[in-house]
TrEMBL record:
Coiled coil: none annotated. It is found in: Membrane. The keyword Zinc does not apply. This is Surface antigen-like protein. Keywords: Membrane. InterPro entries: Bac_surfAg_D15. Residues 210-381 form the Bacterial surface antigen (D15) domain. The keyword Membrane applies. It comes from Hallerella porci.
Length: 406
């Protein structure tokens, strides 16, 4: 969404003492949801820089299509009025997803973006494959919020029921998956991660796991970062009982850095997953397509236990995010031109060699939209891939890459 700054410059002057803060337009959202994101405060001097940061924080909430600031002069300083345009709370929409094994899946979704005005999002989805139609089916429930009972603990819950033929692993995946993640802020931008999951795969059995880690998130926005860094280190144990189907440990390092200059955004990222232990075929890693290497097609022969993927991408904001309305529903859109280069190791032994390495270049267009964040239309090429490959993906690649198999 575009959060526009709209005020009289002569009234909003750095250094003036803030005497009062008011909100306008919060018909669905409780005021303390906004209070948590404020930097300007009554009794402190007003700062344009703080308001720019506030705009990005409001953007990450995914609750507003537009925010503006109005300043009224006061005999002793200035009064601030934050004016919000809220997104539609209930959003029925098509549900889309793209996975390596199923390709595009489409269906219906119903989302409540702001349950009880507390910035809690709940969404239900039903999806089916389109080629071949109804060959794969999924039902999902998602719930999340950046706060838990007004504590700085972000949480995410997921339930997924799958009934699908897996082309990459060549088996019928009838499974149920439950996942909970809690990210508790320790201090400043550091958070502690606790993430238990449970999966039952028909004909194979139970696959429980428990992950713990630490995260440093200094990005200016979680939805469309322009500057800052994200670092995550996580250790996950798969199989915690004697008779579990799998018994291995995943060591994960997720690294992302963003630099902003004018309309140009440079992103450098890497993802490393090392998995020693006993692992079933349905948890082997595959690469190729919109969520890994865009110069290759997903291929069952390209698989491994461990992986290391890196990416350098340049984005140009052709159309900065801007609000619009359709039949009273407040939405936003934007467009970015992208180009980049990416490479990866995918291997089975203790350490990789150059025969396990692949690389591609790509370019394309990203459309920024609510809920899904972005739709990516890209063309990738690698001499090893044989020809130009067209890739279409949802969400940021760094996000989709983490759960690309489901």
């Amino acid at each position: 969404m575009l959060l526009q700054l709209s005020f009289a410059q002569e009234n909003c002057v750095d250094g003036k003492k803030v005497m009062r803060i008011r909100y306008a337009g919060l018909s669905q959202t409780k005021s303390h949801v906004v209070d948590r994101e404020l930097l300007n405060a009554v009794g402190r001097e007003f700062s344009h820089a703080d308001f720019e940061t506030e705009k990005l924080r409001f953007e990450s909430l995914d609750l507003f299509s537009e925010v503006s600031l109005h300043c009224e002069p006061n005999a002793d300083g200035v009064n601030l009025e934050y004016r919000f345009t809220e997104l539609l709370r209930w959003i029925p929409s098509p549900a889309g997803k793209k996975t390596d094994q199923d390709g595009w899946m489409l269906g219906l979704a119903l989302a409540n973006l702001n349950v009880a005005g507390e910035d809690i999002r709940i969404e239900t989805q039903y999806r089916t494959s389109i080629d071949p139609l109804f060959d794969s089916k999924e039902f999902a429930i998602y719930a999340s919020s950046p706060w838990l009972f007004n504590l700085p603990i972000a949480w995410n819950f997921e339930f997924l029921r799958t009934d699908s033929w897996d082309d990459l692993r060549n088996f019928y995946d009838r499974s149920c998956y439950l996942h909970l993640e809690l990210d508790g802020k320790l201090w400043n931008d550091f958070s502690l991660i606790w993430a238990p999951s449970y999966r039952y795969v028909e004909d194979y059995g139970s696959v429980p796991d428990l992950g713990v880690g630490i995260m440093l998130d200094k990005r200016d926005s979680k939805l469309d970062p322009h500057r800052g860094a994200y670092e995550e280190w996580r250790v996950t144990r798969y199989g915690v009982f004697y008779d579990d189907v799998e018994n291995y440990i995943e060591y994960l390092w997720d690294n992302r850095i963003y630099i902003h200059f004018g309309r140009f955004i440079t992103g450098v990222s890497s993802l490393v997953r090392y998995r020693p232990g006993t692992q079933k075929f349905f948890d082997r890693l595959h690469q190729g397509g919109a969520n890994t290497l865009r110069g290759f097609e997903p291929d069952s022969s390209i698989n491994g236990r461990h992986e290391a993927i890196w990416n350098v991408e340049e984005r140009f904001e052709l159309v900065k995010r801007r609000p619009f309305s359709v039949m009273g529903a407040n939405l936003f859109w934007g467009m970015q031109i992208v180009a980049g280069v990416e490479g990866s190791f995918l291997w089975n032994t203790k350490s990789p060699d150059w025969e396990d390495y692949r690389q591609s270049i790509y370019g394309g267009v990203h459309f920024l939209i609510p809920a899904l964040e972005r739709i990516r239309f890209e063309a990738g090429y690698s001499p090893d891939g044989g020809s130009v490959k067209i890739a279409v993906g949802l969400y940021d690649k760094n996000v989709a890459m983490r759960w690309r198999s489901r």
